[in-house]
Amino acid sequence: MTKRYDAILIGTGQAGPSLANRLNGEGMRVAVIERGPLGGTCVNVGCIPTKALVASARAAHVARRAADFGVVVEGPVRVDMQRVHARMKEISGESNRGLGKWIDGMEHVDLVRGDARFVAPRVVEVDGERFEADKIFLNVGARPFVPDLPGIGDVDALTSSDMLELDVLPRHLVIVGGSYIGLEFGQMFRRFGSEVTVLERGPRLIARDDPDVSACVQEILESEGVDVRCGADCLSVAAHADGVAVTASCGGDDEPVVGSHVLFAVGRTPNTDTLGLDAAGIETNERGYVEVDDQLRTTADGVWALGDCNGRGAFTHTSYNDYEIVAANLLDDDPRRVSDRILCYGLFIDPPLGRIGMTESAARESGRDVLIGKLPMTRVGRAKERSETDGFIKILVDAESEQILGAAILGIGGDEVVHSLLDLMYAKAKYTVAARAVHIHPTVSELIPTTLQDLRPLE
Fold first, then answer.
1. How far apart are CA 397 and CA 399, in angstroms?
2. Coil, strand, or helix at residue 458?
């Protein structure tokens, strides 16, 4: 027997529950299918738990610097990893429990536990039970990718999800991958007290960003004692008496890096491989991401893909925006498109990076006449008062339209301040709006007008 619903949602990441709530409000009967913990990556193994760890690591870092501010702390600063871990779990668990109560309170929504698999167009099966609906929404997310390196089967290779189960301090954490996840874990565990080595295959860290951003991030990490090694293009691993040995060079001349733990932070894989998408006529690209159009419709009629599994943005905020786009088009007669979205993201090391729009490299390649403004955080009163002057503000402007093309704010408060520029970009306002604004002193934001008043041609 097949159970009939108005809509089926597979997965409870950032987009799924919110969409279920909107559909429930329309009186639609909805089945929400989830095989794992409610909330997907962000709540359980992503943003919420990792940022809780970042906060604990910052507290330890600030305590060690107390003398710089004239504050006397008796004895060395110690980190109790079991208490750090318990705090993180409580914060993450609270979000998970809250989501469960929310879904339980949706009158027309049934929560189904188990693995969903398509057996026909708009028909899915869960543990032998079949469900059918005219509208099906995929919100299945992604998981950490572990490369098939020589020796990988002989070692305990950790992922970002595994790291959240550690309640002990690694003696030496070796991180393979010099991008966002790897760098956040690298700094936090260095601050907890681990020796940390970051191995990056490419010539620099966070390759998607500009070279000046990469260089400054590396300087920040190295100033705290993180060992960064780029150009690690021939990786292999092997079991070692002290944990794991990671070889990073092709010639074999360099000594391997021996760590107690090794974390692989080299990307993610969409959770689409067990869904039986072929049975529903849903196409994926060569990496397994579901192909969608500008309104997130898949190649199968009546099926949409939201969140990480569609490859159109690997962030919690883009997943939530996917929900908004689908709800607006289906329920509000408000045509919205993915292509209207402006790229924005953060790197949550300390100090953080806020990034929006074009990079400097992309602006050069665009053929536009571009203006650039750049000021160091040493010019920011707030940064000087906090003795946190690493980083800079960089803003790119189209000389013809006078609209902001992009910005990078690496420094104290950068992940918050950058939104003032992002809002101007959505409004398609001229940069002069911000350049002539009066901002509060002493803040980081007060340097936005100053930066925009000192634009020069991008050479």
1. 6
2. coil
pLDDT at 239: 96
Q: How many other CB atoms sit within 10 Å of the CB of residue 382?
A: 20
The CATH number of residue 195's host domain is: 3.50.50.60
Provide the token pair at 404: 């902001």
> How many separate domains does the chain show?
3
Q: What are phi and psi of 136, to 5 degrees?
A: -130, 135
Domain boundary among 266, 298, 313: 266
- Is residue 262 domain-shared with residue 273, that is, in the same domain? no
Name the residue with tokens 């089926």: 8
Domain end point (choices 266, 288, 305): 266
State the residue for tokens 């203006």.
Answer: 371
Q: Determine the Cα–Cα distance for residues 327 and 309; give it in Å rounded to an integer.
A: 18
10 with 136, same domain?
Answer: yes
DSSP string, 409-446: EESTTHHHHHHHHHHHHHHT-BTHHHHT----TTSSTT
Q: Summarize pLDDT for 293-313 with one digit per residue, the tens.
A: 999 999 999 999 999 999 999
CATH of the domain at 452: 3.30.390.30
Is 441 an active-site residue?
yes
Q: Which of 85, 240, 261, 441 is catalytic?
A: 441
> Do 10 and 66 reside in the same domain of the chain?
yes
Domain holding 358, by residue range, is 344-457
Q: Which residues contact 66 (CB under 8 A, 6 or more apart)?
A: 72, 73
For residue 399, give Cα distances in angstroms to 233, 367, 369, 408: 40, 12, 6, 18
Q: Are residues 210 and 295 in the same domain?
A: no
**pLDDT tens profile 41-56:** 999 999 999 999 999 9
**CB neighbours (10 Å) of residue 251?**
6
Q: How far is CA 337 from CA 56, 137, 264, 344, 354, in A?
A: 39, 17, 34, 16, 24
Its pTM stands at: 0.96
